[in-house]
Amino acid sequence: MPIVQPGKRPAKRFQSSKIMGGKMHRHLRTGNVELNVVPMVDMMTMLVIFLLQQFSATGEVLYMQKDIRLPDARHGQQIEVAPVIAISAAQVVVSGVKVADVPDLEKDPSQIIAPLTEKLRDEKKRWDFIHQNDRDREKNWKGEVNVQADVKVPFRVVRRVLASAAEAGYGNINFAAMEEGGPAAAKK
């Protein structure tokens, strides 16, 4: 039984009769309100199209930083999920955390970048913790790292990053590059 507002109510047979003159119906509002759903459907269509365009079946492996312009490559393969070392003209970043400034690296004579090596060892410990219950844990560890280096970064800085990665136990190094003739190459 529906909940109704308290007040006078004639018997059902008198509600719409000529005797009451429809006086009881004047104060009632109709519950039917017309709602234009066309704009809502248009908005939902736009959202679905946007989400489909942003969807990646392979997953986002690399976050593209705006201050890094990757070199072009004619031949390559898809990279797998691994820690990312991003080298821009100003700084070296591992998995979103800044570990060194490039101008400071050019002044320092040592070959190994200590904060970078430490951060990569922390990533290895994290991987070990996540996969500690796996049966074939050692077989799965590949020691891969993805390097995302700007085109204008000097090779001596890249060489130091590679040496630091090897020191931390990451021997399989993948370089990120843009596919020649791809969407980013058209932005030149």
Give a concise summary.
The protein is of the alpha/beta class.
Task: Output the helix-strand order.
Answer: HEEEEHHHEHEE
Main beta sheet: 5 strands, mixed
Number of beta strands: 7
Radius of gyration: 32 Å
Shape: elongated
Helix % is 25-40%
Roughly what is the average pLDDT, rounded to an integer? 76
Number of helices: 5
Beta fraction of the residues? Answer: 5-15%
Judged by helices, strands and strand pairing, the structural class is alpha/beta
Which residues form runs of ≥5 with pLDDT under 50? 184-188
Distance between the termini: 70 Å
With strands numbered from the N-terminus, the spatial order across the biggest sheet is 4-3-2-5-6
Structure description:
- The chain has 188 residues and is of the alpha/beta class.
- The chain has a domain at 72-133 and 141-187.
- The chain has helices at 38-54, 102-107, 114-130, 137-140, 155-167, and strands at 72-73, 84-87, 91-94, 97-101, 144-149, 172-175, 178-179.
- The strands form two sheets. A five-stranded mixed beta sheet has the order 4-3-2-5-6. A two-stranded parallel sheet has the order 1-7.
Spell out the key features of this protein.
188 residues; alpha/beta; five-stranded mixed beta sheet; two-stranded parallel sheet; 5 helices; membrane; transmembrane
